[in-house]
């Protein structure tokens, strides 16, 4: 089955958001930045406000939580937006996806990816796309609604993908 769709900014943001939470590299990076930020806040508060250590530790822990869960993910998404803005050729790239029992073949303007089903470690989906996670540096987007298919063909396409995910014991979320 052949599906055609365009990769847009929302897809890039979805991949970046997914990687910010799932990638081992990003988790370690986020953890390191959060620890450094917490220590810096602790030192700053000790020098400026001269309050007791327990209060400082609680404030630093709160800052750690905020930076760990929100600020880092937001920064990753903003970085992806800047990259897309500076490289407009990345956006609206036509993509042709061939789905077969052997795997997927994704063709973009300048590249072709051949993926076997056993290479896919995790599939995450939202209302518009599937995100296929192969490794910390390799996640691809597959749209749920290709522009070259009718409503019935689209339902068949999505059922086929889910069937292959289940057949090959690929974790989905």
Descriptive keywords:
PH-domain like; 25% strand; 4 helices; 2 domains; four-stranded mixed beta sheet; 52% helix; elongated; four-stranded antiparallel beta sheet; alpha+beta; 173 residues
Mean pLDDT across all residues, rounded?
82
Low-pLDDT segments, ≥5 res: none
Count of DSSP H/I helices = 4
The Rg value, from CA coordinates, equals 21 Å
Structural class: alpha+beta
Strand order of the largest sheet: 1-2-3-4
End-to-end C-alpha gap: 24 Å
Named CATH architecture of the largest domain = Roll
Total of domains: 2
How much of the sequence is in beta strands? 15-25%
Main pleated sheet: 4 strands, antiparallel
CATH class of the largest domain: Mainly Beta
H and E order: EHHHEEEEEEHE
Protein name: YcxB-like C-terminal domain-containing protein
Keywords: Membrane, Transmembrane, Transmembrane helix
InterPro entries: YcxB-like_C
Question: Secondary structure elements and their pairing?
Answer:
Elements: E1 2-7, H1 9-22, H2 24-48, H3 53-86, E2 93-100, E3 103-107, E4 112-116, E5 122-125, E6 129-135, E7 138-143, H4 151-167, E8 171-172
Parallel strand pairs: 5-8
Antiparallel strand pairs: 1-2, 2-3, 3-4, 5-6, 6-7
In brief, what are we looking at here?
This protein has 173 residues and is an alpha+beta fold. The chain has helices at residues 9-22, 24-48, 53-86, 151-167, and strands at residues 2-7, 93-100, 103-107, 112-116, 122-125, 129-135, 138-143, 171-172.
Outline the structure in words.
This protein has 173 residues and is of the alpha+beta class. The protein has two domains: 2-7 and 91-172, Roll (PH-domain like); 15-88, no CATH class. Helices cover 52% and strands 25% of the residues. The chain contains four helices and eight strands. The strands form two sheets. A four-stranded antiparallel β-sheet has the order 1-2-3-4. A four-stranded mixed β-sheet has the order 7-6-5-8, covered by helices on one side. A hairpin with a 2-residue loop joins strand 6 and strand 7 (138-143). Helix 1 (9-22) packs across helix 2 (24-48), helix 1 packs antiparallel against helix 3 and helix 2 (24-48) packs across helix 3 (53-86). The longest helix is centred in the middle third of the chain and has 34 residues, at 53-86.
């Amino acid at each position: 089955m052949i599906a055609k769709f365009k990769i847009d900014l929302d897809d890039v943001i979805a991949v970046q958001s997914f990687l910010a939470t799932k990638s081992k590299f990003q988790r370690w990076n986020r953890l390191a930045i959060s620890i450094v930020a917490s220590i810096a806040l602790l030192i700053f508060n000790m020098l400026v406000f001269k309050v007791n250590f327990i209060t400082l530790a609680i404030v630093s822990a709160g800052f750690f939580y905020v930076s760990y869960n929100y600020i880092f993910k937001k920064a990753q998404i903003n970085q992806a937006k800047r990259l897309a803005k500076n490289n407009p050729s990345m956006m609206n790239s036509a993509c042709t996806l061939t789905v077969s029992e052997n795997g997927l073949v994704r063709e973009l303007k300048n590249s072709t990816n051949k993926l076997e089903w056993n290479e896919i470690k995790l599939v995450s989906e939202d209302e518009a796309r599937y995100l296929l996670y192969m490794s910390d540096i390799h996640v691809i987007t597959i749209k749920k609604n290709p522009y070259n298919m009718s409503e019935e063909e689209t339902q068949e396409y999505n059922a086929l993908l889910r069937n292959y995910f289940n057949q090959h014991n690929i974790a989905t979320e």
